[in-house]
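Ticket reopened. Same input as before:
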Amino acid sequence: MAWTRNDIAARAARELRDGFYVNLGIGIPTLVANNIPDGMTVTLQSENGMLGIGPFPLEGEEDADLINAGKQTISELPSTVYFGSAESFAMIRGGHIDLTILGAMEVSEGGDIANWMIPGKMIKGMGGAMDLVAGVKRVIVAMDHCSKDGESKFVQSCSLPLTGKGVVDMIITDLGVFERPDHASDFRLVELAPGVTLDEIAAKTGARYAV
Amino acid sequence: MNRIFASAEEALDGLLHDGMMLSVGGFGLCGIPERLIDAVLASGVTQLTCVSNNAGIDGVGLGKLLRSGQVRKMISSYVGENKEFARQYLDGSLEVEFCPQGTLAERCRAGGAGIPAFFTRTGVGTLVADGKEHREFDGDVFIMERGIRADLALIKGWKADEAGNLIFRKTARNFNQVMATAAPLCVAEVEEIVPVGTLDPDAIHLPGIYVKRLICGAPYDKKIEFRTVRTVEA
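Engineering reply: fixed in the latest deploy. New output:
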């Protein structure tokens, strides 16, 4: 049984540490917020200018002035602080955020990530993704192992325009976990989802990796 | 000096011209200067370049100026959720300069602070770096980005005093603070104008030196792009 989307998020949540400041992307990464271990203090950053993201508001308590980077209504916590966009990206670019967990369309064996643009289709823009992968201390990608067409998303070389070059530290998919200790090293398969074999993951992976 | 005007139209009187560059605050539909955008729409000024993180949505915010064909170029980081934008972009009538969100914020901060260019790691090895100067500092590669200096800034605040000292509310601050500084003149709309001495001088987010003209735009019917709620836990 490969991992579900929430299983991927739960596995990613095991990379959190007490006291971490973390930025979560849209999609599977958003689910990580529901999997923060009890008793651990993790502060979530929203790049539109907030540290300390609370849960979605109760019905009737939505506030148009209080949204996350995905433009969803959220709530604040007693520890919440607000700031402007320049300050927000100063803390991102300046290496003050401990961890970011992002989705991706492709990741290469050299740690390149592509997640903002498909040429020939409508281009929406990169938002804050390029700043996050360039500036945050540790970059984890949480994604499906294969595309809807069954193509591997962990590839030798990205075919799509890059968001960042050589920036990814860990990849968590529905089939397993790949990690590298630093940006000069190769990725190593460090964990398999339950019931997934080495042969299966090898057959479904375009990238080269150590086992 | 009286900086308080009765309407957005009066506040913008004499400031608009064809081909100008506007720096506009807001993130999505949160904290957008909607009264001032309406006044720009009514003025009929065209060939605008708008520096704004987003381009509104169809018929809301800067989406209004796109629909009316008044915008020639957008400098933005994310423009999804906007069909009119997509149509004009694909048929070539609208020029778009995509800029990473943090680089956009810093370009405006730098422009407003008298810094013509800076180096950043963001975008190295991507399309964003094409044609830009690369330089190594302390073993890492950076690209040069230019500061942005617009002709006029349009922002939305929460409260301002009669001297233009202004505070924002929650995440509606976003790009408003930095866009205000990225032009020689900023016009702000707020929900309430209070007498000087009312706001705590230690708690001002935007000093009045930037806010040359001010209107009260209330009452506001603020729009929510994605309404998400939770149910009460049992």
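Chain A touches chain B through 54 residues (CB under 8 Å). Residues 5-13 of chain A form the longest helix (9 residues). Please confirm and we'll close it.
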